[in-house]
Amino acid sequence: MAKKETPESAPQPRRGFWHWLWRPPERWYLLGIPAGALMFFILGVMFVIFILRPQLRFTESQDFCISCHEMRIPYGQLQHSFHWSNEFGIRVTCADCHLPPELGPSLVAHFDARVDVWGHLMGTIDTPEKFQKNKLRMAKIVWADLKSQNSAPCRKCHSFAAMALDKQSREAAKHHSPEYIARTHKTCIDCHKGVAHELPQEM
After folding, report:
1. For the chain, which terminal residue's Cβ has fewer other Cβ atoms within 10 angstroms, N or C?
2. What is the pTM for the complete model shown?
3. In a domain, 87, yes or no
4. How far apart are alpha carbons 119 and 74 in whole angstroms?
């Protein structure tokens, strides 16, 4: 006679991961682990939305950028450039050119700005003479950064696809043509250094 299976001896169905994840804990105090994780997640989201992001927005403002007196020199140069005043009524600010448009690279750029803070504290460029002495070095860093991004900040406003090449000079139209770009792999900063600031004296 076959042995009758009891509920305890009957084979139990396999439980999946989600069942394991959501099963009630054997000890009531273990509920604090998922509850605490959820609480920290919510607090983290609130911190990013209500504290971190507004602070980052403030550091991207024109007023913040020129609050350090060293930046008055490049700011003055910007005010005499086509990017400050033109027939189209378009004006760019520091962040428009010096911050990538995507969130991830933008956060990296914010972190990299610690070098500027250190330079401010150490007085690296706190006089016009020091600024001119370091200008080429600083410019090369910015140019290399723009090159690595394929001039992404420039492309926020300038689009090759939207350019009316027939209204440009022959040389400009040649350099902006899809064929030239595909052949040379050049990007905006390769040809347009000094569009917002004076070029270093060594150039």
Report:
1. N
2. 0.73
3. yes
4. 15
Number of domains in the chain: 1
Instruction: Tell me whether residue 35 is in a domain.
Output: no
Residue 110 CA to chain centroid, in angstroms? 7
Interhelix angle 103-112/114-122, rounded to 10 degrees, is 20
CA distances 35 to 45, 70, 147, 149, 175, Å, are 16, 49, 47, 42, 59
Q: How many angstroms separate the CA atoms of 158 and 152, rounded?
A: 10
Is 194:159 a contact under the CB 8 Å cutoff? Answer: no
Domain, as residue range, for 175:
66-191
Residue 111 resides in a domain: yes
Q: Torsions phi, psi of 52, nearest 5?
A: -65, -50
Token couple for 190: 């390769």
Residue 11: CA count within 13 A, CB half-sphere: 2
Per-residue pLDDT reduced to its tens digit, 57-112? 898 899 999 998 899 999 999 999 999 999 989 999 999 999 998 888 888 898 89
